[in-house]
Amino acid sequence: MKKIAVYTSGGDAPGMNSCIRAIVRGAAYHGVEVYGIVRGYNGMINGDIIPLNSQSVSNIIQRGGTILKSARSKEFLTTEGRKKAYAQLQAKGIEGLVAIGGNGTFTGAEIFYNEFKIPCVGAPGTIDNDLYGTDYTIGYDTAVNTALDAIDKIRDTADSHDRVFFIEVMGRDSGYIAIQCAIAGGAEAVMIPENLTPVSEVMETLLKGFSKAKSSSIVIVAEGDEEGNAQKVAQKIKDQMKIELDIRVTTLGHIQRGGVPTAADRILASRLGLGALEGLLRGEKNVMAGVVNNQLVYTPFHDTITKKKPVSEDLIRMVEILST
Ligand code: F6P
After folding, report:
1. Do the Cβ atoms of 273 and 265 come closer than 8 Å?
2. Is the shortest distance between the CB of 222 and ligand 1 below 6 Å?
3. pLDDT tens digits, residue range 298-324?
4. Residue 127 CB–ligand 1 contact under 6 Å
5. Of all atoms in ligand 1, which is nearest to the CA of residue 224?
6. How far does the centroid of ligand 1 lie from the alpha carbon of residue 74, in Å?
7. 148: closest CA among 1, 252, 60, 68?
8. Average pLDDT value for residue range 85-97
9. Quick check: CB of 257 below 6 Å from ligand 1?
10. Quick one: pLDDT band at residue 190, thresholds 50, 70, 90?
11. Which helix (H) or strand (E) holds 320?
12. Which backbone phi and psi does 98 adopt, to 5 degrees?
């Protein structure tokens, strides 16, 4: 394989640039020509494909976002769109792909491989950490630390005013950011999609805290929780609580997706980027590179997309025990 391309797709994540850098520098080391596809699958369809070299990725290891930009492509979901993308890759002579992204990215990559047989290896880049086949995804550690910094600040004001705060963190279908933030931020309760916590239970926990002279509380709500987002959960609790509480809601939103990647994310991204590239050059295809128990492994896209990575019961239990 002499010519490959790399792209980032779906929600961006801090560390994606470190990953691109590893792929480009690794390709140079192995004497492989490398291109960057701009704006993920949209760029593939439109032929927005640029040559990259070692210098193109100087001074990006520490930068949030992605120099290749990202998109969620509707056109790539159509056969027509994918045919156009294939024609663009053919025209450039691209023989292999490295995809950096999450579930949607690898769903697209698997369909594309099945149709056109261009080998593709993925590197998991999403703040959600919800991909089967890797213990950690690129961007997760940074997102948790960004959210935690905000939670610590909210704790100060919650305490000064004897308030209950419901803080919503990202995770459409995943409670990974929420559980880490709850433990590290000393939250009184956490609500995640993987483990239904009814509002009645949260109310009980809050009352138990007040009975032990707690004057303020923090509840972390994953955006995808079944009881609703933080705003909805707070409203339910306001309506059902017998005592009056001074409640506020904060949604942290997209600040969790930006910022300087942590050392852990830069190292993980470099390892997974190089791992994905070298896997591709060795003949791996239709798989995602991941780190499981500190070992580099390759998992079929099909499994990463369809299998669930459960949040550890231990962590959920820990929040319950340590919160009151
Ligand atoms: O997948 C990462 C993520 O940040 C989710 O946690 C969140 O639900 C979603 O992306 C938001 O996507 P968008 O930026 O397209 O609104």
Report:
1. no
2. no
3. 999 999 999 999 999 999 999 999 987
4. yes
5. 8
6. 16
7. 252
8. 98
9. yes
10. very high
11. helix 313-322
12. -120, 120
